Amino acid sequence: MTSTPDDVLVVDHLVRRFGDFTAVDDVSFRIAPGETYGLLGPNGAGKTTAISVIAGLLKADGGSVTIAGETMRPDAVSVKRHIGLVPQDLALYPDLSARENLVFFAKLYGLRGKELASRVDEVLETIGLADRAKDLSKEYSGGMKRRLNIGVGLLHRPTLLILDEPTVGVDPQSRNSILEAVEALSGEGMAVLYTTHYMEEAERLCDRIGIIDTGQLRAEGTRDELIRLTGGTDTIRLGGRVDTTGQEEAARSMRTLHGVERVDADRHSLSLTVHDAPTLVAEVVRMAAEAGMKLTDVEISRPDLESVFLHVTGKALRD
Amino acid sequence: MSTLLTLVAQGLRQGLRDKTVILFGFVVPLVLMFVFNLVFGDTDEREFEPLTVAVGAQAGDQMVGVVTDVLGDLDSETLDVTVVEVDPDESRAMVADGDAGLAIVFPDNFGGAAQMGTPTTVDVRRGEDAGVEADVVLSVVDGILQQFGDAATTARAGLAEGLDAEQLAQVAQASVEGAGYAIEEGQADDQQLSAGGALVAGQAGLFLLFTVSFGVTALLVERENGTLARLRSLPLPAWQITTAKALVSFLTGMLSTGVLLTAGGFLFGASFGSLIPVALLVASVAAAATSVMFLIARVARTSEQAGVATSIVSIVLGVGGGAFFPISAAGALAGVLDLNPVAALLRGLGITSAGGGVADIGVPVAIMLGFAVVMLLVSRLVPDRGAMA
Ligand SMILES: Nc1ncnc2c1ncn2[C@@H]1O[C@H](COP(=O)(O)OP(=O)(O)OP(=O)(O)O)[C@@H](O)[C@H]1O
Ligand SMILES: [Mg+2]
After folding, report:
1. Does domain B47-176 have CATH number 3.30.1380?
2. Which domains does chain A have, with CATH numbers?
3. ipTM of this model?
4. A195-249, pLDDT tens digit by residue?
5. Residues 6+ apart with CB under 8 A from A183
6. Where are the domains of chain B?
7. Which end of chain B has fewer CB atoms surrounding its CB within 10 Å, N or C?
8. What is the CA radius of gyration of chain A?
9. Cβ pair A56:B230 closer than 8 A
10. Residue B321: CB partners within 8 Å, gap ≥ 6?
11. What is the least distance, in Å, from the CA of B340 to any CA of chain A?
């Protein structure tokens, strides 16, 4: 783990227990300025608990959290200026409109007058609710509520934006607009801590990803670094009709190719374990044809974060 | 500090938008005042019936004479009492015939027994139609007899110094008068709220607890909304969050009590006295009520539980404080009832309505504020299961 003195967030050997149960177990990671860091883990992994300690809602039982050089604790005040928290569960006043919700929280962040008004307008624009700003938030759709929930965390342009599963339970359209908003904010240089159990979101948004399970950080790195952990092999599967001798012949010639580790055959298919499937697939298909195979499908699979999760925890990310 | 104001302003706005606050803080109590007034109306104009008391005793008993004199003094504008002295049998006959509402029969040589402090029995008969007036007279007689017990000690001391029987009777009489029935009664009359005033003040006190519960249960609602977590992630000290709720409770409580006393007083022609002492009483009772809510917010896990707890506490304090009808009790229970902030409010308003100023309401104000302090201390001691966990 590389570290620089001006890291936005430093989580150091963090521990949080509930009674005898350890929900966050010796977790350490850092986020550099402008970096988007993902905590990827299944339900109950400890993501929300970790975030609650990081945001100063819960006390740490061990270790420390430092944000922009200041120690975070539940009774700390000034360090909380650096963070914008978007809780997993909606945190809005249902009887206030979007604008009223934003104005209230903006005041608590110390914004006043013109600055407050223009910042609220900007945020309404960012979350795409400008035209519904006057409606009570309880009348919004689930996706709109989620967007407003995010908006509140952006008001004071935090150094570190903390988003806890912001797309849970939203329609694909809202989800996409949330992801775009996060990409835009990160583009503006905001550091982001993003938790999710969707690997596609982690892959799309995050510069670095920490894999968390049962309270422990099991692996950490960029997407490619994580994938290398799995051994980095791809799979090419060739399906179709073929007689046994043809299949054996094809397998034999394929094994001679550079980059092919294994070839397994069954009645209807050949399965190749290879390094760098895209450069090999054309040659493999030609060999199969030469051996008389009538191919019905060709499938390339490369490891994804799902495979990484399986590799480091021994279980599937989604059950 | 400006964040505290923002929190309070938001809380008040929330309260004014919340229909249940308007309903329980203002509308329901006013409606109930109306209903109660229709049902129990014109208690104000109720007059005591005239009462004839037949005192039966051996002629010439000076101690009996003392009792007769005191009862004779009861006769006033409020209470029409006629005392006749007859012999024991005739007094019983008068009650039986309906000529007297009450017969008090003293045994022979009652005076001697009283002087020596010897136990003796006074026989009382009440007529079938005798009402609350008879109870008033009986309670006075009871008081005199107790005084005799004390006087006997004084008298025996006198005997050793060689006083004669007549002088002894004077000692006894002096000691009875020292008890001061007349003064006590006068005070009670002056500082009692009129029936309409008591109704208005009682309902205001009862619903105050509902109203103030709003600010504090709002804490639990915030937790359920998730906004409490968000507030705690903001750069403001945690105490401001709870303090803001307390202030919202306190201010809504003062507002609703103020409105109810003004509107109710206007509707029922009751006056509670001058503004500053009344405002002080209202502020004190609002503080006391707010403190109860802190305890509830700490013990209740959900806003629903808090609602139920509020209703129970409100009714207990409201009824105990005389919000529906005057409650009287004796001994330790009376002491407990006296510490009830709703009772203290009624007592305080009684004093101010009789023209009392800030200096005269020290006791009720101290009771209410003391109650608030005790509740806050207790709420710090109980384990937190609710909003502040
Ligand atoms: N207040 C609490 N008391 C006791 N246990 C808790 C508490 N909060 C969380 N836990 C436990 O800690 C573990 C981690 O919970 P946490 O909410 O952090 O998981 P998560 O990764 O955020 O899951 P999800 O994806 O479902 O949001 C779970 O087993 C949970 O039951
Ligand atoms: Mg969670």
Report:
1. no
2. 9-228 (3.40.50.300), 234-302 (3.30.70.100)
3. 0.80
4. 999 988 999 999 999 999 999 999 999 988 998 888 778 889 888 876 777 788 8
5. A205
6. 2-42+190-381, 47-176
7. N
8. 24
9. no
10. B202, B205, B206, B327, B337, B340, B341, B342, B343, B344, B345, B346
11. 36
